[in-house]
Amino acid sequence: MNRDYGSRARIGILTPQANPTVEPELWALLPAGVNMLVNRLTSQGEPQQRFLDYFRRLESTLQGFDTMQLEAAGFACTASSYLLDAGEEQRTCEQLEKQFGYPLITAAAAIRSALDFLSAKRIALACPYPSWLLAHAERFWSQQGFEIAASFSAQPQMGDTRAIYKVGGQEASEKIATALQGVSCDAVVITGTGMPALQAICDLQQQFGVPVFNSNLALAWACLRAAKVPLLDRAPEPGFPLLGGWQQLISRL
Length: 253
Prior knowledge:
This protein is of the alpha/beta class. It has helices at 22-29, 47-56, 58-63, 78-83, 88-100, 107-117, 131-143, 169-179, 198-208, 215-226, and strands at residues 9-16, 34-41, 72-75, 104-106, 122-127, 147-153, 187-190, 212-214.
């Protein structure tokens, strides 16, 4: 591609309006030559309505890229998918892909693809969600055919879900390590794009000995696959079967 920036791909990322985590984590996760362009998902509703608005206003959010040529777009809000009616996510994404001419991947769909790629059937869920949203997540993954070995929230009593963005990665890592100690599973999924988790992935990977990834890592991986971008400097490596080569960048975030 004859571009000064994004010579291998341009990937559009749609992130919740107050989320401070998606951009830095994807910056570390995406390989050289892949340009990330971001639009904010906006809504003034209460938490549940806000998550639904983010998804149901996707068409207008994507229009914010105007004539920019993208190779893929990623919807970086896992919680929205947990609240949608059955089949709504797939129908909407298929319609928007035809309309805009590039693949559209939700964070939840990215996690599904990653779990299938890893042949993981029995999973442990960790999140920063309030209890009511964790319950929706558990139901969602059970309906997708996965066995929930254990689930844990770092902030179960949270009111306004925007408080997720104040949950520290180190604190969450320590809580997850304690809560899931001894759990037998094929993979640990840290769901939610707003809680910093890249260092936690590194730490927990060593403890659990099974793949550990979060919504942002799965989304970066799935967008690269959809855009048909060779991973090169982000190729898998021992202990990191989806994307490797990003760990040394965490200290720069």
